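User: Before I run my own analysis I want an independent prediction to cross-check against. Here's the chain; please return only the structure tokens and, at the end, one sentence I can use as a sanity check.
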Amino acid sequence: MFRKHFFAIFYSILLAAFTVYMFLDTFVITRVYAAVPSAGASSAVEVEAKAADTEEDSESQAKNRNGNESTTTGDENEVSSQSSTERSAVSTETAYQDENISVTITEYREYDTSIYVADILLSSPDYLKTALAQDSYGKNVTEKTSEIALANDAVLAINGDYYGAQETGYVLRNGVLYRDTAQKGQEDLVIYEDGTFEIIVEDQVAAQELLDKGAVQILSFGPALVTDSEISVTTDEEVGKAKSSNPRTAIGVIDDLHYVFVVSDGRTDESEGLSLFQLAQFMSSLGVKTAYTLDGGGSSSMVFNGTVVNNPTTTGGRIKERSVSDIVYIG
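Assistant: Structure tokens:
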């Protein structure tokens, strides 16, 4: 009797094991494909240059001691410069200002939902950056938005596109192309080295072509909310099988080096959440020329000066950050 059903039992066990493995491989097992230097890390060239500077400073100090000269060393100049920069930065619970970055946080109440808007002015596009969890590109490599922000000295951060949940879709971060496999019909946000935005469709242009044109970031979630100052989603459009009202994250550009990061609460009694069309309407009301949806739901999070601004939640029963693959940040 047992021999008769042996193959059926064996096949059932094998199928169950394979199903468990596929689940773990998709959502749990971590695979690191490439290490990414953190924002504060020094390259070999920088380390060598610093070593040379240190040697020169030591020689200069020795000469000063021998000749009783009263000159300022390079290290003292550096400390003085850093202190001056720190003194020039003014920060409150809702605003940050230094000579290169201006951020103002405003909370709105629309559609029975709390919406948090960071209005950003930069002196250079170099201050608009992205970062990967654990300084690594891979699968199921995650950290909380606040943790990635802290590791990269971010003034302001929002969750990114959660590239790690997808097998395809372009991944370009800070000028490094990690994945160039196109997904048919996928709308991406391209950020160029001059800080301008463009919406593209992956199967219509190669990632390398965008990189050659000066792209430094490609975010692959979507869809686009506003294009050429016009709302580009419909009232019934949604992301996959998402609910009609959700926590949301979006990024938009108003003018040259003038951006907005937007995060909404949702799934709670206090905040219903937004549909994509409502989010597009809200972004349009801010005066954006281009706006794009990033990962939402439990991933939606905004961190300002180390503090989580919104109320992130996956189910609505508990306010807690979800770990994500990446962030977009100012710093």
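Sanity check: The longest strand covers residues 101-110.
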